[in-house]
Amino acid sequence: MNSYCLITGxxxxxxLEFAKxxxxxxxxxxxxxxxxxxxxxxxxxxxxxxxSEILILNYxxxxxxxxxxxxxxxxxxxxxxxxxxxxxxxxxxxxxxxxNWEKQLELLRLTIETNxxxxxxxxxxxLTRNSGRILNxxxxxxxxxxxLMAVYYASKAYLLSLSRAISNEVKGTGVSVxxxxxxxxxxxxxxxxxxxxxKYGLFCTTAEHVAAFGYKALMKSKSIAIPCxxxxxxxxxxxxxPFDTATQFSRKLQERxxxxxxxxxx
Length: 266
Ligand SMILES: NC(=O)c1ccc[n+]([C@@H]2O[C@H](COP(=O)([O-])OP(=O)(O)OC[C@H]3O[C@@H](n4cnc5c(N)ncnc54)[C@H](OP(=O)(O)O)[C@@H]3O)[C@@H](O)[C@H]2O)c1
What we know:
The chain is α/β, with parallel strands linked by helices. It is 50% helix and 15% strand. It is built from eleven helices and nine strands. The site of NADP nicotinamide-adenine-dinucleotide phosphate has 28 residues, from helix 1 and helix 6.
């Protein structure tokens, strides 16, 4: 029987690496992204490399009601999803009161509203079959407040909390929910935040590594997965330092990574 896997934000970065891994394992892929041009390129490359047929769906996941549209679209094609990877995401950098409100709202709709709805809609369906795997991509940002990316950090904290709770609720049903929390990873994510030359430094890994780590955790039905030792330390920094010091630490990381945005050179 065909195993169908739906990946959001699959046109680049971590999502695309998940697509490669799953195609290699003979899963049938449905790739969702708002970037149609990159989606087409990904489809062509993956089909050529893995000789599999890939369905691409061009949706903006910040739009209200989009989760239901995707579910209906797949129902009409008689496709049942066995693996869901809720990966699409982006950040908004800047002081909370100054950063673009429309972008912040889009971020909240995508990370909170759509991810929650996709999780619920596909979980319900998987539970009727007592089978399925879901992976939600959050971030180590989910573990503490993040000055200068406050809405992003807070939205990832919501997703982490939701995902871990549902993982507990579905224990023993045959369906698993895994939360993947990457740290800094070389993808378009950083340049999307307005920084074409991010300071990656030593504490940075590749999208390939993050996807491989997440895939293993997904297949083992782990509830949470944090790739790289240093990310596990950063995720626990609030346990090691007083709360305000830990928040200041997050701020320093943001200032260091994006100092060119805070002090633009004219
Ligand atoms: N890279 C990091 O340092 C890092 C660290 C921690 C967590 N993460 C998380 O990892 C996940 C994947 O990010 P990435 O690093 O792989 O970034 P990426 O290379 O920018 O990939 C994200 C993909 O999601 C798509 N996307 C963004 N908004 C969308 C929307 N509204 N509807 C549909 N598709 C949308 C993007 O399309 P466009 O190209 O059109 O924008 C892009 O193809 C995100 O959830 C991110 O928060 C990343």
